[in-house]
Task: structure prediction
Amino acid sequence: MSPRRSSGLTLFWAFSASIFAALVLSILPPPQLIFYFWPDWVALVLFYWALTTPRRIGPWVGFLIGTLMEVLFVRSFGVMGFGLATLVFTVNRAHLQLRVLSVWQQIIVVGLFIGIFKLLTGWLYGLISGFTLSAEYFYSLVGCMVSWPFLFILLQELRRSVRLGTT
Amino acid sequence: MANPFRRSSQWSQFGLVAFFCVALMIVDGRTHWLDTPRNVLSIAVTPVQMLASMPSRVEGWITGQLAAEPDIKIAYDNLRNEYFQLKSEALLLRALQEENQALRALLDASERLQEKITLAELMNVQIDRDNHSILVGKGIRHGIYGGQAVIDDQGVIGQVIDAMPFNSSVMLITDPGHAMPVQVQRTGLRTLVYGTGSVSLLRVPFLNQNSDIQEGDVLVSSGIGGRFPNGYPVAEVTSVKIIEDESFMQITARPVAKLDRSNHVLLLAREQKAQNTSQRLLDALVEEEDTQ
Result:
């Protein structure tokens, strides 16, 4: 096996490509049947990168991606950035504990952490623009939890194919 | 790793981000300073939008390629019939317009404002309970500005709330935060129509028990407020309920426009220059053909 090349550039490209795909998926109009269950792709992908490369993907990266999402969805600035920064931060803090868990156990943590992220952003949108939290708002957590194992394997595969180590 | 990583600095880093975010929220909520950065960034996310609208485009292309020739022939005949019918109506319209202008001049009323029409393609529909908006493919570069009324071939869709360089965001009339002045076509009664958050439901909350309104009445834009030009159909009243001891009636209406289903929308801009409406619509269509 060739030596692992954990260069910043490779990580940058792999990360950007996956985030780009997540952004496209998140604005794709989902089918009516799973409309409410469409996962928060960006949060999921960020969760993965914050878990596997905690030294590189920190709160500032989360904030940056959140700001891009706010531009994409034409929402007020700052909220999504704060939510994603918090998500990345909590995952960074807990990454050693989370890595020990199997993918199936991680599902629960994903639901919990992304739930906190959604609660936080929903609450802040409520403060800013009169958004009210509803049960449907949290249905997407189910989608997140269901798609986590697949996403995890997929991104793990991506990381292996570009020979990216754990940083 | 060469990158120094100290646990103690994590909290301070996060604190800095949080502080920055709160500052952003306040600045963006109170001022318009961040509109320009947003526009610049919106160019950066254009590839994402392009890619996301790809499936529907590919689908449209494939159905276009697969359509059988007889079908095209029939569609062509229908369109031609429709074209001649519209053309004759447009001729009549021109005569009526002149007559109307002469009558208005007699009455000393101000001339009806002319609207400049821009045809735009629908790029993205974003409908959730609290936010009904669509993204259309024309922006500041094409002369779009915030506040323009948006219609389709059936009626009013909404208004432009955010114009970005290459596309703009349109708030639908069903958005829970949207209200617009309307008039009952049958009686001329003026009122407001509110969005509810459901795509097929509007609310008319402020009509007295003794108002003359009934099921099936068509609500048209009244032009009051100056944002929506008057006379465009908005909604059809679906139910009128009188509740005892309530001062207002409970009225619901259904929008007549295909809010989230039309592929093309028209953006109306105010302009003083008098020109025939149908002619301008044709111009806009021809222009669209040229650009494609």
The interface with chain B takes residues 20, 23-24, 27-29, 55-56, 58-60, 62-63, 67-68, 71-74, 76-79, 81-82, 85-86, 89, 92-93, 124, 128, 130-132, 134, 136-137, 167 of chain A (CB under 8 Å). Helices of chain A lie at 8-27, 41-52, 59-73, 79-100, 103-129, 140-161.
